[in-house]
Each structure stands twice: as structure tokens, then as C-alpha cells.
Design a protein that fits this description.
202 residues; Methane Monooxygenase Hydroxylase, Chain G, domain 1; 2 domains; 7 helices
């Protein structure tokens, strides 16, 4: 009986040590994934599609390597660094898709439902940054289109059963602020003599 107990303990220790070793490796790789994802967003907004595409391909490979690295998928859902990186990666993919018109299979991203929704919320902030660039170039029509798209995103996000003082509550509030920022941009453009008029039917 004692031998069985000791053997069970040894097995438990082996599983634990493997889990912890993979957990640490995932953390290191995830931090690199997060940095790469931020650069994808940077180049996409800067209209450098070639660099954005190249970095996105590298980041996708990194994501696949991280997922393949673990024996237990629960590591990915327990690791805060990975969850943050996966959210950043998904946000980069969304920005890339919108600004380049190219597609990406978002279902291949392993992450929690909370982080997935967080990426859509963060997307609004990046779109607000795009509007600043567009406003500088006098692209009022494009700013207005993005404003309308952010409104659509917020309408969909409002269907989420968000708990007060939760992670997604904060994200949703940030998305609302992004919308107000874009509305302020349009208002300031109108004050500078660039009236925002209704667009003609396409």
C-alpha cells in the first residue's frame, strides 16, 4: 500500500514539473508574441502592408508553436501572459483585416471567450487612432465610416452579459471612449471649415 502511495506521489510530481516547465516556456514565447502583434498593428496603421503581412505570418507561426508546446491546453487558459498575448494577437489580426481588406481565420486563435471579446473592444481604440491620421489628411468621409463601424461594434458588444467591475466592463467603457474620441474628431473638423455632410448613396 505504501509503495502505491509513493508511486502516485512520484507520478503527481512528474505531471506537476512538466506543467510548470511548459507554463514558463509559454510565458516566454507569449511575451514575444505580444510584441510582434503590437508591431503588426503599428505597420498596418502606418499603411506598410508588406511589413504588417510579414510580421503577421511570423506571429501566426509563433502562436502555433505555443499551442503545440503544451500537453495540457489548460496551461493556455491559466497563463495570464499568454491570454494577454493572444488578445493582442487577435486585435492585430482584426486591425490588419480591416485596413488591408485581407481575411484571417480567427477561429484558429486559442484563447478565452473573455479575451476574444476584449480584442473586439480594443479594436475600437486602434480605429480611433486611424481616424486621427485620416483627419490630418482631411479624409472626413473615411472617418465617418469608421465612426459608424465603431457604433455597430458597440451595439453588438452591448449584447454581452457583462458583470459590473469586470474585465469586459472596463473594455466596453474604453470602447465607448473611443467612439466619443472619433465623434470629437468629426466635430472639430466641422469647426475648422470641413463640414461633415451626409454621404451620397453608393
Amino acid at each position: 500500500m505504501q509503495a502505491n502511495v509513493i508511486q502516485s506521489l512520484k507520478s503527481a510530481i512528474e505531471v506537476y514539473n512538466t506543467f510548470e516547465a511548459q507554463f514558463r516556456e509559454v510565458s516566454i514565447m507569449s511575451d514575444e508574441l505580444r510584441r510582434m502583434s503590437k508591431r503588426v498593428t503599428f505597420y498596418a496603421i502606418g499603411k506598410d502592408e508588406a511589413k504588417a503581412t510579414d510580421l503577421l505570418e511570423q506571429a501566426t507561426k509563433m502562436l502555433d508553436q505555443i499551442v503545440a508546446k503544451v500537453d495540457d491546453p489548460q496551461i493556455l487558459f491559466d497563463n495570464e501572459i499568454y491570454k494577454s498575448a493572444s488578445e493582442e494577437f487577435m486585435e492585430a489580426c482584426l486591425v490588419y483585416m480591416i485596413l488591408t481588406g485581407k481575411s484571417f481565420d480567427l477561429t484558429r486563435i486559442t484563447t478565452t471567450s473573455t479575451r476574444r471579446l476584449g480584442a473586439f473592444s480594443d479594436l475600437t481604440g486602434e480605429l480611433a487612432r486611424v481616424c486621427i491620421v485620416l483627419a490630418t489628411d482631411g479624409e472626413v468621409k473615411q472617418v465617418r465610416k469608421i465612426r459608424d463601424f465603431i457604433q455597430e461594434l458597440l451595439l453588438e458588444l452591448s449584447k454581452t452579459k457583462i458583470v459590473e467591475n469586470s474585465y469586459l466592463r472596463t473594455k466596453y467603457d474604453q470602447a465607448e471612449r473611443a467612439l466619443r474620441k472619433v465623434e470629437d474628431i468629426l466635430y472639430n473638423l466641422s469647426l475648422r471649415g470641413k463640414p461633415v455632410v451626409a454621404e451620397e448613396a453608393e
